[in-house]
Design brief:
Elements (H helix, E strand, L loop, with lengths): L1 E7 L3 H10 L3 E4 L2 E3 L3 E12 L3 E12 L1 H19 L1
Antiparallel strand pairs: 1-5, 2-3, 3-4, 4-5
C-alpha cells in the first residue's frame, strides 16, 4: 500500500529525523526505511496568501496498512508539534 501526505511548516531534515526516531534508517538523501515500511521525502515551497511562502514536506509512505496507520499517526503528531 502507498500513502502520500503533506505537512507544512517542517523541514525535510526534520521529517527525516522524525522517521528515524520512529524506527527507520536513512538509506539515501530522501529515503528512510525500516524492515516493514519505506518513506520517500520531498520538499517544496508553497505560497500562502499573496506574499508568504512556507515549506511543504511531502512524505510517500509504502508498507502494509496495519504498519502504515500507526506510523503515519505518530509521524503526524510529531509534525504538528513542530509546525506550530
Amino acid at each position: 500500500m502507498v500513502r502520500e501526505r503533506a505537512w507544512r511548516g517542517i523541514s525535510k531534515r526534520l521529517a527525516i529525523h522524525y522517521l528515524t526516531n520512529l524506527g527507520g534508517e536513512q538509506v539515501d538523501d530522501d529515503i528512510v526505511a525500516a524492515d516493514d515500511w519505506r518513506a520517500s521525502i520531498a520538499s517544496d515551497t508553497v505560497g500562502v496568501g499573496p506574499t508568504l511562502e512556507i515549506t511543504e514536506v511531502t512524505v510517500r509512505f509504502e508498507g502494509d496498512d496495519d504498519v502504515l496507520d500507526p506510523l503515519i499517526e505518530r509521524f503526524a503528531q510529531k509534525a504538528m508539534r513542530a509546525g506550530g
